[in-house]
Amino acid sequence: MTIQKSILYTTIFYVFIQILSLWILVLPASDYRFLIVKSSPSIDSLLTLFILFIIFKYIDKTDFLKFNRIRIKYLLFAVILGIGFVYIQPILGIIFNHEFSTNIYDFKFLFEKLKSINTLDLILLTPIVEELFFRNLIQKRLSKNYKPIISIVVTGFLFSMIHIPFPALFIEYIDFSLYHAYFALFGGLLCGIIYYKSESTFPSILFHMIWNLMIIIT
Q: Domain limits at 192?
C-alpha cells in the first residue's frame, strides 16, 4: 500500500462511519426511539466491527488478531503503557495550550462513569474497530513498502485525523478543536509501536482499551 492509498482508505473509512450513523434517521417515531438513539454510538461500532470482520475473514482472509503470536510481555507492556500514558497527557496538554499549571494531576477516578452504554463502547468496541483498521489494515500494508518508522508515523497521523471534528466546520453549535486529534496522534504512535514490536493487533487493542478507560475515569 502507498501513502496515497492509505489516505484514501482512511477518508473512505471516516466517511463510511459518518454515513453509517445516519441510520437513526429512518427510525419511526416511538417511545423507544430515544433509547435507541441514546445508544446509537454503540450500535454504530457493532455494525462497523461486523463489516470489518467480514472484510478480514472472507475478503482479506487473514487472522486479524493472531492470538497464537501474542507474548505475555507485550500484554503487560500494553497495560503499563496504557495506565502511564494518562499521566503523560497533562504534560502534552500544557504544550498544546501554552499554559503551565501546577494542578495537572488532580485526577478524580470517577468509576460511576462506567455505567453508561456508550462509555463501555469507547472502552471495548471503539478500540477494536480502530485498531483493526489502522494497525491491521493500514500500518501492516504500509510496512510492506516503507520502513517501520514511516508506516508507524503515517498511520499515527491518519489515526489522529479521524478525531478531528470536521462536522463542526458546517454545524455552528459544534466547536471545532484539534485538542482530541492532538492527543490521538501520540496515542496512535504508541499503538503503532506496540503493534510493530508485538506483530499482533491484540496488544495494541489492549493498550487502546486501557488508555480510553483511564481517560474516562480520570
A: 3-217
Set of cell numbers at residue 45: 461500532
Alpha carbon of residue 155 to chain centroid? 12
Listed residue (192, 156, 183, 194) closest to 80, CA to CA: 194
- Half-sphere exposure (CA, 13 Å, Cβ side) for 211? 25
d(CA 13, CA 16): 5
What is the value of pTM for the model shown?
0.85
Taking the C-alpha atoms of residue 31 and residue 69, their distance in angstroms, rounded to an integer, is 48
- Please give the Cα distance from 90 to 93 (Å, whole number): 5
Is residue 185 pLDDT above 80, yes or no?
A: yes
What total number of domains does the chain contain?
Answer: 1
Cα–Cα distance measured from residue 57 to residue 54, given in angstroms and rounded to the nearest whole number: 5
The answer to whether the beta carbons of residues 121 and 41 sit under 8 Å apart is yes
Give dist(CA 35, CA 113) in Å, integer: 18
Q: What is the pLDDT of residues 22-67, one digit of tens each?
A: 766 666 655 555 555 556 677 788 888 888 888 777 766 666 555 5
- DSSP secondary structure of 71-119: -HHHHHHHHHHHHHHHHHHHHHHHHHHT---S-TT-----GGGGGSHHH
